[in-house]
Write a structure and sequence with these properties.
CATH architecture of the largest domain: Orthogonal Bundle
CATH superfamily of the largest domain: Hypothetical protein, domain 2
CATH class of the largest domain: Mainly Alpha
CATH topology of the largest domain: Endonuclease III, domain 1
Largest sheet: 8 strands, mixed
Helix content: 25-40%
Oligomer: single chain
Number of strands: 8
Distance between the termini: 59 Å
Number of helices: 14
Structural class: alpha+beta
Shape: elongated
Number of domains: 2
């Protein structure tokens, strides 16, 4: 849509008085009232003020849609009902419960944070955003959300949805992920709270910002007619909803390749634990190689007879690149050894889900052994 060059419209004489940094004094109250009336109310983490459950939901919701999170959240709480239960659990169990949600550093940080809370805070969460933000894996926006929902603290949040809402409402130019733009958005987020009345319902206001970004002020085709901020939203007034937030420059997503070995022996499959850093950190996956020659050398090291059979390649998309996986299947004669060496394990085919695996690897093995007869 072409950008308008006309001057901005004159302020409406009936508009509410502005607070700090030009924030309307009633904007936060409008968001809270809208949330109570029309926001989302059926999400399981909305029925609690337990900081553990709120924190868990906030971590899971990072870069993941609520509909995807709900079943994981409920299963996770069934396994680890308290933060001490989570802290006491082995990392393997935590990663296994997380498998499929992606961004696995979140699970490792979640586990580490639970251990710090157990060891240094007696299993209790600090009651302020500032203290929460000092814990491992908790950024300022997550800390503020937990403090607002659990304790009613007047703390601003700035997740991806809220950045979009504020960038449009205040007509903030610039890449919403750039440090300079983020600083401006934080200023506006704080100004909205500072301008709001003392009795602001922080739970409704905080949830309302998230709900606005998720259901109304969406990336494309925002539903301005239903938005409580529409009367003074600068993007709507200037007809710039399609231009704000400023789109990030699109870069070609590089394609990387790897080879994976499905080594089967005596009803077991060889798995390998990934390093804690890097993609799929700490998860169990198939032995991975940079090229076919390295895979064939590994097969020779397993004293395998014959050539591995190449299966259909699969693509998996990460944030910054695509990974093309070439799986190769090889059946080894004899009995599987009881041990496979440090960082490796022979996992029974019927119990592969006991290991936390990346989603594409889990799908590959499930399809191979459940739906596709192996070549014999």
């Amino acid at each position: 849509m072409a950008r308008r060059t006309a001057t901005a419209p004159r302020p409406d004489a009936s508009a509410p008085p502005a607070g700090p940094a030009g924030a309307p004094a009633d904007a936060a109250s409008r968001i809270a009232a809208w949330q109570r009336r029309a926001g989302r109310h059926g999400l399981p983490w909305q029925r609690t003020r337990d900081p553990y459950r709120i924190w868990l939901s906030e971590i899971m919701l990072q870069q993941t849609q609520a509909a995807t999170v709900v079943p994981y959240y409920e299963r996770f709480l069934a396994l680890f009902p308290t933060v001490v239960d989570l802290a006491d659990a082995p990392q393997d169990a935590v990663l296994r419960a997380w498998a499929g949600l992606g961004y696995y550093a979140r699970a490792r940080n979640l586990h580490r944070c639970a251990q710090v809370l157990r060891d240094e805070h007696g299993g209790r969460f600090p009651a302020t955003a500032a203290e929460l933000a000092r814990l491992p894996g908790i950024g300022p926006s997550t800390a503020a959300a937990v403090a607002a929902f659990a304790y009613g603290e007047r703390a601003p949040i700035l997740d991806g949805n809220v950045r979009r809402v504020l960038a449009r409402y205040f007509a903030v130019e610039g890449d919403p992920a750039a440090a300079r733009t983020v600083r401006r958005l934080w200023e506006h987020a704080r100004a909205l709270i500072d301008a709001a009345p003392a009795g602001l319902d922080m739970a409704a206001y905080t949830q309302g910002q998230m709900d606005l970004g998720a259901t109304i002020c969406t990336r494309t085709r925002p539903d301005c007619a239903r938005c409580p901020l529409a009367p003074d939203c600068q993007a709507r007034i200037r007809n710039r909803q399609d231009e704000l937030p400023t789109p990030r420059a699109r870069r070609a997503q590089p394609l990387r390749h790897c080879w994976m070995l499905i080594a089967e022996c005596d009803g077991r499959v060889l798995l390998e634990r990934r390093p804690d850093t890097g993609i799929w950190g700490g998860l169990w996956t198939l032995p991975q190689f940079e090229d076919a020659a390295a895979l064939e050398a590994a097969c020779a090291g397993l004293a395998a007879a014959g050539t591995p059979l190449a299966l259909a390649a699969i693509d998996h998309v990460f944030t910054h690149f695509r990974l093309r996986i070439q799986p190769c299947w090889l059946r080894l004669p004899g009995a599987a050894p009881t041990a496979a060496g440090e960082g490796r394990a022979w996992a029974p085919i019927g119990n592969l889900d006991a290991h936390g695996m990346p989603a594409p690897v889990a799908r590959l093995l499930a399809g191979l052994y459940a739906d596709t007869p192996l070549p014999r």
